[in-house]
DNA sequence: TTTAAGTTCCAGGCAAACCTAATGATCATT
DNA sequence: AATGATCATTAGGTTTGCCTGGAACTTAAA
């Protein structure tokens, strides 16, 4: 019994997956409704349907959690999304703030061979242009110990930008403006207690100031 | 007033375009219904809708014909389809009998920049893996004077395979089996009057027999 | 125990894309 | 000019997928 999954259903699974990452645990109806900008009643309906299809475990008290099948499907969609983003940036000269919407369409294309070959063409990338990990064909996420820049407490610390936690066009274009790119080295020069703003040097250039909000959205690793 | 076009509507436009190529002129309701395997009443409904949107000129007596806008849209979809097929074969190692269904999905992705960049990546190809002409970004089709092999009347004629008129998996796999590929040289050795079957030599190999049905679906050019 | 927050149930709606069955129009031929 | 064949249209449904608002319920905290 091959059950077809609609675009909408795939998007719900993706949303539940990403909320579960953040919130650790079962997902409330309302948080899905807010994220997707739809009515909570609509969410209830869909959650019941996904529960029927064994893609989530759902009850009114605990909320929703992906079943293994649901998680596999969510990871597959995420894999496709991130591979397509990588393709768009690496092969078709898109900038990192342009690719999300197109990838939202491309992620629903159904063809296992297509995604396998695309992965191969791109050289089996582990991270997409935003630094997000790309699940492999078995749904395994590459490990990376990243942390938000804002959590650095010692001036003088050197880190490397490996990802962003905010994918909005506005934020990405801000990074372009301050000429901060993935894999750039960042040295924390000063940390201001009162607002957690930071002075940083990017790739040994002149130091600049960034707000704690920005620092919160920059994911970095040691060295 | 940007009016959204659904997948289904795009498919109707494509169908009308291709029928107009064959049948020269206005398209009857019934021929669309047969091609898409749907009920004529359904077709009537959709044709009225497309007429409303000024994508076709339609009345019950003459049938349907694409307006300039409708033709431009049809050509755009065909362009996308054929560029994606080219990408799949040239970059992702697909065979020519595997690509149609995936391209049917990919052709509906909306992004002008995507298709422009894809075209560039592929080196602005003029023909897809089946030899079908790819419309350029202005909807212009490259010219090529091809004719079906079956129309050759003189034994000894040398031609080149430049396309196929039948895109079914069965036919394409038959061509693979007899090791006939695009751009192969074909020499017509003998023509049998009674059934129009032909003896041909492909790329100077041993001669083989093909039926007139096969010869009808092989598009060739001189030299 | 009351209230607020969250969830669900219910009734309903809407659009897209398809169907059947009956009716209507057109045309070729006699 | 009549007739029958063919094709198109109308009318009335169905299904799928998505959505809404409002009433009612549950739960947990004040």
UniProtKB/TrEMBL annotation, chains A, B:
This is Transcriptional regulator MntR. InterPro entries: DtxR_MntR_Metal-Reg, Fe-transptr_FeoA-like, Fe_dep_repressor, Fe_dep_repressor_sf, FeoA_core_dom, HTH_DTXR, Iron_dep_repressor, WH-like_DNA-bd_sf. GO terms for cellular component: cytoplasm. The keyword Ubl conjugation does not apply. It comes from Arachidicoccus rhizosphaerae. Homodimer. In the presence of manganese, represses expression of mntH and mntS. Up-regulates expression of mntP. It is found in: Cytoplasm. Belongs to the DtxR/MntR family. Keywords: Activator, Cytoplasm, DNA-binding, Manganese, Repressor, Transcription, Transcription regulation. Its main location: cytoplasm. Residues 1-67 form the HTH dtxR-type domain. GO terms for molecular function: DNA binding; DNA-binding transcription factor activity; protein dimerization activity; transition metal ion binding. It comes from the Bacteria. PROSITE patterns: HTH_DTXR. The lineage of its organism: Bacteria, Pseudomonadati, Bacteroidota, Chitinophagia, Chitinophagales. It holds the Pfam family Fe_dep_repr_C.
């Amino acid at each position: 019994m091959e059950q077809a999954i609609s675009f909408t259903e795939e998007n719900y699974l993706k949303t539940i997956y990403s909320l579960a990452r953040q919130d650790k645990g079962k997902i409330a109806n309302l948080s899905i409704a807010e994220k997707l900008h739809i009515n909570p009643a609509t969410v209830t309906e869909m959650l019941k349907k996904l529960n029927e299809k064994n893609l989530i475990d759902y009850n009114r008290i605990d909320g929703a959690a992906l079943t293994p099948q649901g998680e596999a499907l969510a990871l597959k969609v995420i894999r496709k999304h991130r591979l397509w983003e990588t393709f768009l940036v690496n092969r078709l000269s898109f900038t990192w703030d342009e690719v999300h919407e197109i990838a939202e369409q491309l992620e629903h294309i159904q063809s296992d061979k297509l995604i396998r070959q695309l992965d191969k063409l791109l050289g089996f990338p582990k991270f997409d242009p935003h630094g997000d990990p790309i699940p492999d064909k078995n749904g395994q996420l590459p490990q990376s110990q990243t942390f938000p820049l804002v959590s650095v407490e010692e001036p003088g610390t050197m880190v490397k930008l490996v990802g962003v936690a905010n994918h909005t066009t506005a934020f990405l274009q801000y990074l372009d403006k301050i000429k901060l790119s993935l894999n750039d080295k960042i040295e924390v020069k000063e940390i201001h207690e009162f607002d957690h703003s930071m002075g940083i040097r990017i790739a040994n250039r002149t130091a600049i100031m960034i707000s704690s909000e920005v620092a919160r959205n920059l994911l970095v690793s040691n060295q």
